[in-house]
Design brief:
Elements lengths: L1 E6 L9 E5 L10 E8 L2 H8 L9 E2 L3 E8 L10 E4 L6 E2 L3 H9 L1
Antiparallel strand pairs: 1-2, 1-4, 3-5, 5-6, 6-7
């Protein structure tokens, strides 16, 4: 199980719910990341307010995050490799030692 910020309908900050949900199982073209830090930014604000066309509810928020690879069925990454994601899946390998140290302080 994992914690997630979930919304079931558009609205103000009160529609944000912190819930415990099942950990998703990644497909071959996906990577499961054990999140160490994430952000809710303007994109999530627009989604929460109902300004993101095509978004279906319920919705788990948080498209920018950093953490450790938990599982990569397609072999793209190694377990425990440090990664960051932005805009829903564009994973980048974190190479900077200063970022590396920061991740472990999260």
């Amino acid at each position: 199980m994992m914690k997630a910020a979930v919304i079931y309908e558009p609205g103000g900050p009160e529609v944000l719910k912190l819930e415990t949900i099942p950990v998703p199982k990644p497909n071959n073209n996906e990577v499961l990341i054990r999140i160490k830090a994430f952000g809710l930014n303007r994109s999530e604000l627009f989604t929460r307010q109902g300004h993101s066309p095509g978004v279906k509810f319920p919705r788990v928020l948080g498209i920018e995050a950093c953490g450790l690879v938990e599982e990569a069925p397609g072999g793209q990454f190694k377990k425990n490799q440090i990664v960051a994601t932005a805009m829903g899946g564009m994973v980048r390998i974190v190479a900077s030692m200063s970022v590396f140290a920061w991740l472990y302080e999260c």
